[in-house]
Design goal:
The complex is a heterodimer of chains A (231) and B (243). Chain A has 231 residues and is mostly helical. Chain A has ten helices and no strands. In chain B, helix 2 runs parallel beside helix 4. Chain B has a six-stranded mixed beta sheet with strand order 5-6-7-3-8-9, with helices on both faces. In chain B, strands 2-1-4 form a three-stranded antiparallel beta sheet, covered by helices on one side. The chains are: A mainly alpha (231), B alpha/beta (243).
Chain lengths: 231, 243
């Protein structure tokens, strides 16, 4: 019998279709969730940084706390929403990749919002008078501040990606780990390990680690480059 | 070369009528009554904490007076044709040319006009070689030159400067002073704070002397330096001379 690492490398080297399918789905779900969370979270976080309203402190605390939302709880919430008796049950989204995207967006969104808020708030303190003097009101300042904070914001987006690609609980609950349909890298590792079939689990673990490492290296490199290039 | 593209109505004189500013009931600036006339160079002087920066920010409209009035010839609202250069300019994390373009885009000028204005401004201030350089990586002197160029590109009728050269070395300071003098000769009204007595003498036409949040002297610069009327101003000038 070959050991799990030998099997793992054979699976990766041969480009095993089941393996590729799982990787593809995982990336599609997580990247889509990151994209949606950024589209919503970046402007919302910036607005939260610049706006002054009653209860602002409470909103900030809630979003900070939600950064630590346990994935299984996020999964449970989305499950309740999408299950047949839930408010969105008629959409029949439960156990589909879409449901997984929704759950992961819920996980990433607080990270993007909180980090953006913190970055933009610091920048605004530095830029406020100058931007007002140049003729930019608070609303117009938002895209300017987001763009000038782009290097720091990348870190937040990356943290969001890391969280989503690593979690099992949410995608397992709302996706159901259906082979060829909603099986992701993390849910597959859970299942294969439980079944004692360590080859596929190890292969997926290696790929997941490599992916995270590559992405972080790229982001770090981009940050270094930008600091030298943009000041 | 005139910075004014069209000839909009003059926003000057700026009339300050008993203008004051208080925080939590504590007055930081009180009862300032002063007219800033077109084409003048007004130097605002005073010790640290006298309220010079606050005075500029109130005039410029970054904050509103809590008492009294600030009245432009164009009305009560914040006049458009003004610009301000800060002690430490904030440049955006983009190229020199893009920094010049930014306020023009905010103004909603058409792209062609913006491109032409940026090119003219780069040319005018010898910034062509730096046009594509990231603004944040310029030296302190170059950054302040860019900040002044950016202000000029906005075609202000009045330019406020808050200690524009206090963080710069003598040669960079000289360049800044020359730029301010040129702006003035083009008809831009100058209101500037400085700690540097030599600079105040070189550039000042009028001096406003602030002491503990009050305007206690406002006279032609030559008269002020020849013989200040108040003991506070005398002490201020003497202190600096002894030093």
């Amino acid at each position: 019998m070959d050991g799990p690492f030998v099997i793992a490398f054979r699976l990766i080297a041969s480009g095993d279709p089941a393996l590729m399918q799982i990787i593809g789905l995982s990336l599609r779900v997580t990247l889509t969730a990151v994209l949606i969370a950024c589209a919503v979270g970046l402007p919302l976080g910036a607005a939260l940084a610049l706006a002054r309203f009653a209860g602002r402190g409470a909103v900030i605390v809630v979003f900070n706390a939600l950064m630590g939302l346990p994935p299984v709880v996020a999964g449970l919430i989305v499950y309740l929403m999408l299950s047949r008796s839930g408010p969105f049950g008629s959409l029949a989204l439960l156990f589909t990749p879409t449901a997984m995207i929704i759950a992961q967006t819920l996980l990433i969104l607080p990270i993007v919002i909180s980090l953006t808020r913190s970055v933009v708030e610091d920048l605004w303190a530095e830029y406020r008078e100058q931007l007002l003097s140049l003729g930019a009101g608070r609303l117009r300042a938002v895209p300017t501040l987001l763009w000038d904070g782009r290097v720091s914001l990348l870190t937040g987006v990356l943290a969001g990606f890391g969280r989503a690609s690593a979690e099992v609980g949410a995608v397992l609950i709302v996706g159901g780990n259906i082979a060829g349909h909603t099986r992701t890298m993390t849910t597959a590792i859970t299942l294969e390990t439980a079944r004692g079939q360590l080859g596929l689990a190890v292969a997926l673990g290696i790929i997941l680690l490599t992916l995270t490492l590559t992405l972080n290296a790229a982001a770090w490199g981009a940050g270094q480059w930008a600091r030298g290039r943009l000041g | 070369m005139k910075p004014v593209r069209d000839s909009p109505a003059s926003i000057l004189p700026l009339a300050l009528d008993g203008m004051g500013y208080a925080v939590a009931g504590k007055p930081l600036l009180s009862d300032i009554t002063l007219r800033i006339e077109t084409g003048r160079r007004l130097i605002v002087m005073g010790a640290n904490g006298a309220g010079k920066s606050l005075f500029l920010r109130l005039c410029h409209g970054l904050i509103d007076p809590t008492t009294g009035r600030r009245l432009w010839a164009s009305g009560e609202g914040r006049a458009e044709a003004q610009a301000m250069v800060f002690q430490r300019p904030v440049l955006l994390r983009r190229s020199v040319a893009a920094n010049l373009d930014y306020p023009l885009a905010l103004e909603g000028l058409p792209r062609a006009v913006r491109r032409e204005t940026v090119a003219r401004t780069l040319d005018r201030f010898g910034l062509n070689a730096l046009a594509e350089r990231p603004a944040r990586l310029l030296s302190g002197g170059e950054q302040q030159r860019l900040a002044l160029a950016r202000a000029w590109a906005m075609r202000p009728q009045v330019l406020f400067l808050d200690e524009p050269s206090s963080a710069l070395d003598p040669s960079a300071t000289k360049i800044i002073e020359e730029m301010v003098a040129q702006f003035s000769s083009e008809g831009i009204t100058i209101v500037m704070t400085t700690h540097n007595l030599g600079q105040a003498r070189r550039l000042g036409e009028q001096v406003a002397f602030l002491h503990r949040g009050r305007l206690i002297e406002h006279r032609p610069a030559a008269e002020f330096f020849a013989g200040p009327q108040t003991p506070e101003a005398r002490a201020f000038l003497a202190g600096d001379l002894i030093w």
